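ok so dumb question maybe but i'm new to this and my supervisor (M.) told me to 'just get the structure for PH domain-containing protein' and walked off. so i did the thing. is this what she meant?? sequence i used:
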Amino acid sequence: MSLPDWAPAANDEPVVWQGQPRQRVVHLGVAGGVVLALIVLASIAVIISNGLLPTELSAVVGVALALLVFAVPAGGAWLWRRSTRYVLTDAALYHRTGVLSLTVTELRLSKIQNTSYSQGIFGTIFGHGTVTVDTAGSQGAELTLQQLDGPKAVHQRIAEAAGEAKGERRDGIPGSLDTWKAVRAEVRRLRAATTGDR
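this is what came out, is it supposed to look like this??
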C-alpha cells in the first residue's frame, strides 16, 4: 500500500492499514431518502385528492420536493463516505475529511494513550462499529473512526502499532530490549558500588 497524496507523512512511513466508512452507509442514506420521498409523494397525493391545490401545480411541486428529500440524505451519505479516509502508518494515524475544504488530522502513535471500539446491536449483527482513539492530555476522544467494517481488527492494529511506536513488546513487557539491557547494566553498577565489588 502506498501513502496517499493528502497524508502529511514522511515518504518512508510504511502504510499498515487504510480504510473508510463502510459502503452500507450509502445504502442507508438511499433508504432514508426513499422513505422521505414516499412520505412527500403520499402527502401530495392526499392534497390532490382533497382538491386543496391544483393538480398540475401539486404534481410538479411534489415530484421536485420528493427528489430533493431523496437527494439530501442519499447524496450526503455518499459524499461523507467518499470524502472520509483513514490511514495508519508505523508512525501516525491520519484522518481525512472534507469535500470543498480538506481537513487532515494527524495523531502520532507515540502519543496514543487508549483505543477502544464499540458496536451497537446492529453493529454486532452486521459486523461494523466505531473505533475511538484517545491521546495523553486530551479531554474525550481525540479521533473517532466511524462506521468501520471489522472495528475489532482495526482497534487491534492501531493498539499494536501504537505499542510498537512506544517501544512496547507484543508480549506485554514495556520497553525495548536495549532499554532493559541498560537497566540491567545500571543495576549491576549500583550493586557493585554499594557492596564494594568491582
